[in-house]
Amino acid sequence: MPKSKRTTARRASYVPAAFSKRKRTEQNQFCVAFPSNALASEDRFAMMLLTTALGGGVSSRLFQNIREKYGLCYAIYSFQTNYLDTGLVAVATAVGKDTEMKALNLIGDELKRFADIGITEAELNRAREQAKSSLVMGLESTNSRMLKMGNSMLILNDCLTADQLIERYDAVTCEDVLRLARDRFDFSRVSLSAIGKVESAESYIAALGF
Fold this sequence. Notes:
Layout: E1 18-22, E2 28-36, H1 44-55, H2 61-69, E3 73-82, E4 87-95, H3 100-117, H4 121-138, H5 142-156, H6 162-170, H7 174-184, E5 191-196, H8 201-208
Parallel strand pairs: 1-5
Antiparallel strand pairs: 2-4, 2-5, 3-4
């Protein structure tokens, strides 16, 4: 390919937004988001364990509370989306029209509790082992290895070994997760999107209790 001038991308930043769209769906789809770290941040390891403990599997707080205890949804999970300059951490779920406000209120309570008291050693250890096992099992796939190494070189200009990554996860403490939870779940910067037989986005933000 011929040479071309390297372009400089404009810096991106998280901006709170509220969005709702009426659509004929069986359930109403919700996503609640907050600002998070960039791809190369050293906080990425602690954030991975935070999102895992919060909503990263059947043993996570959101799954056990919103689905198992109250039976308000089939699926609920937390996730991260990260870019060179910024990122976001979010919770997504789908609920029925008649229980949506209760579900959002419980999600808000769980996020506040997470930011208030953090996680236990047992939760941290479970999240840590889940992250480490996923990493090790991914080594069995050449495609997974290729993508991971390529992304690391393009973004970080470095490629950490599996042992180095495991060391980073092992170094995360409950205090690290609590610090990030208090920083990330900034209720003054919450964003929300709602799709389905929905009301205004602002009414759903109010239901979260922010």
